[in-house]
Amino acid sequence: MSSSPLTCLVIGTGGREHALARALSLDPGVAAVHAAPGNPGIAAVATLHDVDPLSGESVADLAESLGADLVVVGPEAPLVAGVADVVRARGIAVFGPSGAAAQLEGSKAFAKEVMEAAGVPTAAAMVCTTPVEVQAALDAYGPPYVVKDDGLAAGKGVVVTTDRDAAVEHAAQCERVVIEEFLDGPEVSLFALTDGTTVYPLQPAQDFKRIFDGDEGANTGGMGAYTPLPWAPEGLVEEVLRDVLQPTVDEMARRGTPFSGLLYAGLALTSRGVRVVEFNARFGDPETQPLMALLDSPLSPLLMGSATGTLASVPAPTWKPGAAVAVVMASAGYPESSSKGDVIRGLPDAEALEGVHVIHAGTAMVERATVTAGGRVLAVVGTGGSLGEAREAAYDGVSCIEFEGAQHRTDIAAKAAAGEA
Ligand code: AMP
Ligand code: GLY
Q1: Alpha-carbon distances of 96 from 40, 274, 347, rounded to whole Å
Q2: What b/e sequence results for 188-202 when a residue is b if at least 16 CB atoms lie within 10 Å of its CB, and e otherwise?
Q3: Any idea where the domains of the chain sit in the sequence?
Q4: 6-95: which CATH architecture?
Q5: For a surface tag, which of 104, 335, 336, 344 has the fewest beta carbons within 10 Å of its beta carbon?
């Protein structure tokens, strides 16, 4: 591996990309961080460029013009569109799977097929394309019904309900649906870096998907996250590496579509054991925010090793002691809609607090004011010696920040911090 400092280009606009760009900017092995299209938070740690993230040629042109050593493709849409393939074909190292491998996220039916072939434990499921098949699948599994749009749906394609009519209605709106057995038990996000052969799991994290406290209300992209999980069963990471991550990576290689980048396993710890709820082909958002806050290893060698098939020669990631908690602040109307242009106040006060930093997602600069520009606006990340301290720091930060219609959950990591999870 080259030891001269790297020029990195991060593709995307969200909180995940801000957290990754920030970690790269703090890495002594990185000379320059560029991002495109980026956001005002990313602008503080990287040089921004304009690009259509879905155009592989445009991304590759930009990477060439910058002399980028490593391109990091953050979101799923460009990955599924094959952006990483185009960049890789130009001879530039790229962190992120090929379009073919990103089908692990792009098609739930494909993911099920791979899991079956690899013997990976997941919910039993049927792929349905007709109303008759839908009715039969709903009968087979019974309530609560789990109905998933087969394709990419930005976190909005899944309906979990005891209302049969609602289940049927959601299925009718999708061309192809996956209907599956309901999984009970707490959810864990376990991410792994891989170059297609070697697999390095990260520390487990937990995401809060529902909009309201107590896991009430609609599903969102994620309203907060924390790491580590003091309540996780001993040996969880080893078990998931052995039974889920490594077999999936091996199966993808066997098929001739090796998966490199970040394999995101969304898991349910059910009474019958660990089950995969979903795979994603990229870092999770907001879980990446607390994970990057605690990563002790420099990030660039891990990403570069994943991108170039040399991960085995990079030391496995190590973690700072303590905990990190991210609390998302969302704009008015989220998740059904979002509000743009509301002035955000108090960011410098939050950032001035010990153990607090703010990660931007849906923000924009208008006449030197930072304003809302999306559903999930920002995440306040707190770190501390314990989950309780990290939580307190994050919420101290949240209390400094104001914008019209701001919403946040007040119970992120609360149960875990209280030893009740
Ligand atoms: P997915 O996009 O597949 O992760 O689904 C979004 C959310 O729906 C998950 O995070 C779970 O909270 C829930 N979910 C998905 N599949 C199941 C299942 N089989 N049983 C229970 N809940 C599920
Ligand atoms: N936090 C959920 C996701 O990134 O898909």
Answers
A1: 24, 26, 32
A2: bbbbbbbbbebbbbb
A3: 6-95, 188-313, 323-417
A4: 3-Layer(aba) Sandwich (3.40)
A5: 336
| CATH superfamily of the 323-417 domain | Phosphoribosylglycinamide synthetase, C-terminal domain (3.90.600.10)
Residue type, 344: I
- The pLDDT-based confidence of 1 (bands split at 50, 70, 90) is very low
Question: Tens digits of per-residue pLDDT, 45-101?
Answer: 999 999 999 999 999 999 999 999 999 999 999 999 999 999 999 999 999 999 999
Ligand number nearest CA of 75 is: 2
User: In angstroms, what CA-CA distances link 319 with 188, 280, 327?
Assistant: 18, 23, 20
For domain 188-313, which architecture applies?
2-Layer Sandwich (3.30)
Q: Is 266 in the pocket of ligand 1 (CB under 6 A)?
A: yes
The model's pTM is 0.95
Ligand 2: distance of its center to the CA of 102 in Å? 15
When pLDDT is averaged across residues 255-269 and rounded to a whole number, the result is: 98
From the CA of 222, the nearest ligand is: 2
